[in-house]
Each structure stands twice: as C-alpha cells, then as structure tokens.
Amino acid sequence: MSRLLLVIAGPTAVGKSELAVAVAERCGGEIVGADAFQVYAGLDLLTAKPAAEMRARVPHHLLGTVPLTQAFDVGQYAAAGQRIIREIRARGRVPILCGGTGLYLRAMTHGLAELPPADAALRAELERRSLEDLHRELAVLDPPTAAAIDRHNPRRLIRALEVCLLTGRPFSSYRAQWAAPPEDVCGVLLTRAREELWERIAVRTEAMFAAGVVEEVRDAGEVGPTASQTLGLREIRALLVGEMDRPACMAAIAQATRQYAKRQATWFRREPWLQPNSLSGAVDREALANAVAALVAR
User: Cα(first)–Cα(last) distance of the chain, in Å?
Assistant: First the structure.
C-alpha cells in the first residue's frame, strides 16, 4: 500500500478545489480539507466550501464536520486528519490534502511542534489587553512572527505571545523543528499573477453576496470563539446592525481577503518542497491535472 500523501496548496481563491477534484478523479483520490474555517458546519458561502457538484464527484473530508460553537485547534485537526488519512489508505485510495491554512498543512506533513500547553492565568491576562498592545509586545519578543501573523486574530496573537513568555524563546524558533522536507509527501503550490488573483477575489465576493451570504450569517445562530474569526464574519455582522452599508461591507471583505492571501503567500515561501505551478494565462488545465496525478505514480 502506498504511503504517499499528495498536497495541493495555495492562497485563497487561486483554484485549489477544482484542481484537487480533477486530480482525485485521475488517481483514485479522496480529498482531506486543510482549511481552518471550512471545517465548521454552516457558513458554506462565507468560507467558500467546494460546490456540492464537486463534493459529489469525489469524497471530501474535514469539511463541515465541527459545530460553529465548538473551539477547534491545530492539534484536534491533526488528530482527525491523521485518522482519516489512515482510513483512506486502508481503502486503497490516495489521500489528497488540499487547502490554504499553512499551519494545518504543516501539522499534517511535518507533525506538531513541541509547544508548551496553555497557561490559564497568563492567557486571562493577555485576553484583557488590546490587539495593538499584544502585537506591539510580540514585535519586540519575536519580530518574524509579528510580521507574518494576522494581527486581527486575537487567538493567534495570544498564543504566539504566550509561548514567548512561557518559554523565553521566540515562537518562530519552533519552526526549526519543521525545517526538513517531509517524507512520503509530494505536492504543488498553485499561484496566480497578483492582479488576476485580486480580480478572482472580487468576483468571488460579489458572487457570495448574490448567493445570500448575508442571510447565511444572519441565520447562523451562536458562533464560538474560534469560528468567529472566519474571514468576513465581523464585516457582515456590522452590515446587519446598520454599522456598514452593503458596498462598504463587500469592499472591506475583499480587502481583508487580499491581505489574507498575502499572508498565505508569505507562509508558502517557507515551503520550498512544494512545486510551484502558475494558473495564470493560457494554462492547459487537463495537462496540469494529469501531471499532478502522475506524482502519485512516482
């Protein structure tokens, strides 16, 4: 039985889902999601889950499996993902890890860094501070992490600063444990020219609103602390209470999505083992799908 894990990575809106389905059909694969928010049940439009038609063609896993109210972290994701990959291999199929959450991808290909457990007292203290204050201290203790982190995500800011304070080491220093290329893993990194990716983000944002994403958020019910970090949720909630009009909300979500894509690109530059493939211009999609599927045979 092959132990290979095939990875299809890239920034949001680049076209990962479509390629992953085409590759899975060619190599007998099943897709394991690697997206921190698509794992939640509900908010399908907001998190840009693969369309029902694609999910019907090929089995997908770790999409819509966690309640919105439940906290979920990379450790839980890695445990669930490893179990699913074992099950896929036992069926004689090929696991295809597809997504853009770099930390989740890294956990599945390299394992988890040996980080200290959370400290309740320290975390409570950090939670009382502003995001700006947290980021300012992180920039002093760990400039590389401060430069790359989502400064609007309190959960990640607090965890990075907590590790620095508990261990006396920069959070980024733990990445050394993940430096070696992974074994029994191959993969591709999908890219596009920036202007083209920005246009795809704008089109997807418009399509999301046309499909009813505002109503989806309104009807979502209670959302827990982890799922509340979903891109665009804060903006649509502001729209629903009249703090923002629809054009401003759409523009804010598109801007936040572009910023997220930039952070993803920064992360993936640290993954040189991924083979870059541009989807810009006159790309033969059939040939690309065949080439990626052929990686399994090698």
Answer: 14
Identify residue 235 by its one-letter amino acid code. Answer: E
pLDDT digits (tens, 9 = 90+) for 3-39: 789 999 999 999 999 999 999 999 999 999 999 999 9
Q: How far apart are CA 264 and CA 258, in angstroms?
A: 10
CATH number of 120-176: 1.10.20.140
Q: Which residues are bridge partners to 97 per DSSP? A: 7, 32
pLDDT digits (tens, 9 = 90+) for 50-102: 999 999 999 999 999 999 999 998 889 999 999 999 999 999 999 999 999 99
Question: For residues 163-179, b (16+ Cβ closer than 10 Å) or e, as one string?
Answer: bbeeeeebbbebeeebe
The CATH 3.40.50.300 domain(s) of the chain lie at 5-112+184-297
Q: Which fold is adopted by the domain 5-112+184-297?
A: Rossmann fold (3.40.50)
- The helix or strand, by DSSP H or E, that contains position 6, with its residue range, turns out to be strand 5-9
Q: In the chain, list all ranges with CATH 1.10.20.140.
A: 120-176
